[in-house]
Please model this.
Amino acid sequence: MGKSISVVIPVYNEQDNIEPLYEELKEVLDGLNLEYQIIFVDDGSTDESCEILDGLADKDPSVFVIHFRRNFGQTAAISAGFDYAQGDVIITMDADLQNDPHDIPKLLEKIEEGYDIVSGWRKNRKDPYLTRTLPSNIANWIISKVTGVYLHDYGCTLKAYRKEVAKELKLYGELHRFIPALATEMGVKIAEIPVNHRPRYKGKSKYGFSRVFKVLLDLLVVKFLLSYRTRPIRILGGMGFLFFILGAVPFFYLILKKVFFGASIGHRPLLLISVLFLLVSIQFISMGLLAEMIARVYFEGQGKKPYYVRYIKGKSL
Ligand code: UDP
Ligand code: MG
Model:
């Protein structure tokens, strides 16, 4: 295995965890006989994390630290780590010692088998059940159903990626939880393996219960990006048709009554409803067409391609 690896670790106020994590990680990485680098991304920490990390970088050339100017969130931290990583395989893990560095060799083995992303599954999760594990189980089930990428544990940071895949990911907001689903648009092979999970001994979790709702909204975005980004008219136009039928059927029924039976229809609520639905249908269809134009601006304006190449065979020029 001539591969090199980069370990990317987002850090936000983890002063008591950094050194024990570093020691443990170092021991595992040294045992691998591979070239490696440890990239800590200091996400605007306000405790001693900043100084501790710089201290590690001073004494160990394999430590690389990126300091953010302020707290940008875990997704931005992971994304910066991907940008700077040089290893052939990139591993992400939490800084709070909840992930176990001893799982890294297992992840690498799976990558060697040919997978592009290997995701950890905290099978025996050590977080409070009602407020953390249960909501997360439900979220995992919903995300799997909606995206069609079935994983037991979307929330586990401990993952391994082939460099080519990680580098292509465009991560915004808090989308790091959806990486496996987002990556399917590139056509990747994903494996999930059980990993160890430990309680958080030091420092506080950075997320509360409100995460559940944010995750559901993010899921809506992910579903749209995965299914309809390149053809928004399918979703908006579809709703437009639906409302057109809902509006047109009663509308023509009323017109017939008026024309053939001379009934007066001006006072009927049904008329109001059918006109409303007809207007809504026009709105949806025109929004769909606008979205189609925006999608084109999105792809063409940023030079973003609607495809990803796995490899190219043969010489160019
Ligand atoms: N983290 C970060 N920026 C943030 C929030 C969290 O870099 O704004 C880091 C945090 O230091 C930890 C990891 O992301 O290394 C996961 O955070 P946490 O342990 O709080 O999440 P939980 O395990 O509770 O889901
Ligand atoms: Mg944690």
Summary: The pocket of magnesium ion (ligand 2) is lined by residues 94, 96, 98, 200, 205 (CB under 6 Å). The chain has a mean pLDDT of 92.
